[in-house]
Amino acid sequence: MRNVITRAVEITKASLRMLEKHPRLMALPLMSFSLMPVFMLAVIRLFQHTPTARLHVWPFALVMLPLAFVMTLGITFFNVAFTRAVMRTLRDEEPSLVEALAFAASRLPTLLGYAALASTVGFLFSLVERYSAKVGGFLAEYFFQFSWSIATFLVVPVLVQERRDVVTSLRRSGALMTQTWGERLLGQLGMTAISLVPLAITGGLAFAAWKLRTEALALAIGLATIAALGYVLIGALATAVRSLYAIALYQFAVEGVPPSEFGSPALDDVWKVK
Q1: How far from each other are the two terminal CA atoms of the chain, in whole angstroms?
Q2: Which residue has the higher pLDDT, 253 or 179?
Q3: Is the whole-model pTM more than 0.85?
Q4: Average of pLDDT values for 127-140?
Q5: Which long-range contacts (CB under 8 A, 24 or more apart) does 52-58 make?
Q6: Of 41, 85, 74, which Cα lies nearest the Cα of 240?
Q7: Distance from the CA of 23 to the CA of which of 132, 136, 180, 232 falls in 20 to 30 A?
């Protein structure tokens, strides 16, 4: 476990070094992650008087699928733009937010197809969770979610670099992941572990704000504001690190070498050609 955390710290440091050279690129992960709380607020607003457990499948689907589609499309759009900009930096080209967003817009037909597929898969996972109270149902859901995350982890770099359609991009991503699944799993586990600490702190601030709302309203508002900003910044940074790690894995799988920023001695045992 210690080695996993060490790798995750090195991956995060390498990602921060890349972002330090082009800090304005963080605008794209910020846009991407900011869609998540908007989606959550929309769901809470829609179901505040009708718990989802009381809805039948089709009414639930009619509400959730469009929301999930829009959120997935937005997140994928900004992730594609971010990946495009980072890929330009790896070729020693100056990145441009305008060019990156224009590129993502040019891939919109493919992104629409991917968002439709990914949101439908996510909805099916939510149905399994909703209607499977048994341990077997939970394990099946976890297995399929894990398999889906493995298969799609490199789909954005593939969409950016190889301009394939949705189906062949998924196949290509899955094929590349068979070469790097160990690196992906260890890195993702470590990054998840180290992100839990700051998220726990922001969660604690939010809980404190809730408890103080009647006794010290001004303090509660201040704590809630800090917690909200911290949540968005931490989430955006985690999104950026995850995307940069996917780019590094993609380059490693295709070219046999990772980006120079990920070439620290602490990661030498990770980058091994299978």
Answers
A1: 23
A2: 253
A3: no
A4: 60
A5: 52/130, 53/130, 57/127
A6: 85
A7: 180
Question: Within 13 Å, how many C-alpha atoms sit on residue 3's CB side?
Answer: 8
**In the structure encoding, which two tokens stand for residue 58, read together?**
């089709």
* Whole-number Å distance between alpha carbons of 233 and 28: 12
The pLDDT value recorded for residue 74 is 92
Please report which confidence band the pLDDT of residue 56 belongs to, taking 50, 70 and 90 as the band edges: low
Checking if the pLDDT of 164 tops 80, the result is: yes
Give per-residue burial for 237-271: e unless 16+ CB within 10 Å, then b.
Answer: bbbbbbbbbbbbbbbbbbeeebbebbeeeebeebb
> Per the structure block, which two tokens stand in for 111?
């992104």
Tell the residue number behind the tokens 């508002």, with chain if given: 221
What's 120's DSSP letter? H
CA 132 from chain centre, in angstroms, equals 26
Residue 76 exposure: Cα atoms within 13 Å on the Cβ side:
30
Residues 120, 123, 129, 131: is their CA dihedral positive or negative? negative
* pLDDT at residue 108 greater than cutoff 80: yes
CA 226-227-231 angle, to 5 degrees, is 115
H or E element at residue 143: helix 135-152
Instruction: Tell me the one-letter amino acid at 126.
Output: S
Contact 142, 129 (CB under 8 A): no
The torsion of the CA quartet 139, 145, 146, 148, rounded to 10 degrees, works out to 140
Cα distance between residue 26 and residue 10, in whole Å = 19
Q: How far is 202 from 193, CA to CA, in rounded Å?
A: 15
